């Protein structure tokens, strides 16, 4: 399944001038003190984290600290009140809600379509720390990258959408329901592609390669698998060979899926150990397009390049699972050595 929307971290800014030691102690019990300023911490942390930006106001100076936790902010505030130390808090400011949405293609066109329906104002995405924006507002950021892993700052689009008329939860619900529509607008078409990937393996380790393919599709959030089934394919020797077909419903163009398939034909040692043939509209997609992009490079060179691209972009859990499956394939192949067909 492709994920198009997720929440960002929740954050508050707290200013204190009394009972400093006690409040710091409660903060340390709630979370952890980190050596990041508000801007850097908002760039780093995702939806499972809560942040407190603490300012300690002394007579002649102020000290700034940042705390991060998986615990709810409400738990911290309840602790401060119940411990009778909340009187040391001068003020608390709630940061705006942070939302991250995945769009591809013409991202600006997608943002304007959302703005037309949700309202709001298109603003610069930087800085991320915006204490000037009230906590009743939310900022929707956009990226073309998978939401399954941390989004780097350079992968966040330079424009975002500031929405004040709806709560963060209402925005998340709305975009979850209509996200595919806006993705289609950004891509220039509401239509996704039906692409078949056929696994051809002379070692007959179809299930392990099926799991590899699923792991990467899910890890990179490439789309949805609609159908799986066995088929027969006639080889050059006129023999009929079993192949396993997976039909992918994807917003990506067919050539992107071909690049993915070529990369997964190679193991971590750069050896080709399976065939992933890609079909669209009953036509087999050739590797010639990829070969023409890189004159002088062999098919193996390009396949290994594509594999490296997959490994660079996939989340760590999916990468570990992929490596586990490939280690299992290697063990099975040693029991029954053979060559990849085709």
- What number is the mean pLDDT? 91
Q: Outline, from the CA principal axes?
A: elongated
Q: How many domains, as an integer?
A: 3
Q: Ends: how far apart? A: 30 Å
Percent in helix:
25-40%
For the largest beta sheet, what order do the strands appear in spatially?
A: 1-7-9-10-8
- Provide a count of the helices: 10
Output the radius of gyration.
25 Å
Proportion of residues in β-strands? 25-35%
Characterize the largest beta sheet: strand count, sense, and whether it forms a barrel: 5 strands, mixed
H/E order of the elements?
Answer: EEHEHEEHEEHEEEHEHEEHEEHHH
Molecular structure report:
With 342 residues, this protein is of the alpha+beta class. The protein has helices at 20-30, 38-44, 73-82, 107-118, 168-187, 206-219, 254-264, 288-293, 299-313, 316-335, and strands at residues 5-7, 10-16, 32-34, 50-57, 62-69, 89-94, 97-102, 121-124, 138-143, 159-163, 193-200, 224-234, 240-250, 275-280, 283-284. The protein folds into 3 domains: 8-94, no CATH class; 97-187, no CATH class; 193-335, no CATH class. 37% of the residues lie in helices and 27% in strands. The protein has a 5-stranded mixed β-sheet, covered by helices on one side. Helix 1 packs antiparallel against helix 3 (73-82), helix 4 packs across helix 5 (168-187) and helix 7 packs across helix 9 (299-313). The model has no long low-confidence stretch (mean pLDDT 91).
